[in-house]
Amino acid sequence: MSNFWRLTPVAAPLIESVEYHDVKFNGTLFNPSVYMGKPSLDLDAAWDAIVHRSRPTRITSEMLKKLHKEERPSLIKFMDVDGGGYMGTLDFTHQLHCLNVLRKHTYYEYYKDTESAILEGPQAYRTHLDHCVDMLRQHILCNADVGLVTNDWVKGHKTPYPDFSNWHRCRDVEKIWEWNEKYAVHIPWERLTRFGDEVDLEQPDGAIVS
């Protein structure tokens, strides 16, 4: 593991536990993926299984400092009887959520009466979509993949055709989920009660606080 991850103050609490493995992507246009295709119950179930798999975990005051976050009174806390600390979630879960929102937007007519983001109303939905697009942009550029893509001459194409089916060294997401399950705070949402000393953050109309 590079020294960068050992030294950076924004490293996540589990970065030392991350394992890697080599994966060959299927970059073909007609990849028979369970995450692709027209809307169906099976397709939605496949996405739900990865979008909603992660569980809240505990962030201590020490971890909060490493994340460059202040102990502001608006932060959601766990009750002392549940171990205390602040509620945290894995960042890539939000990225999957955003990708799923955009996927559903491509089949708007199918999801317009059931997707919670759409039911927020036109203005909030537009803001939500723009937020997701820009969050994914930031993550892609932050993790800029420097793998090289080769090109072939393909029948029916007059220009070079890129081959996106390449090998990548990936974080083992199953191991990350195992870590999350081990350190998850298993309590019902109704136990995330207000203690009486919280101060709600102000937000502009239609904005999404981050």
From TrEMBL:
Top-level taxon: Eukaryota
InterPro entries: EF_Hand_1_Ca_BS, UstYa-like
Pathway assignment: Mycotoxin biosynthesis
Gene Ontology terms describing biological process: mycotoxin biosynthetic process
Coiled-coil segments: none
Family: Belongs to the ustYa family.
Protein name, UniProt field: Tat pathway signal sequence
UniProt source species: Postia placenta MAD-698-R-SB12
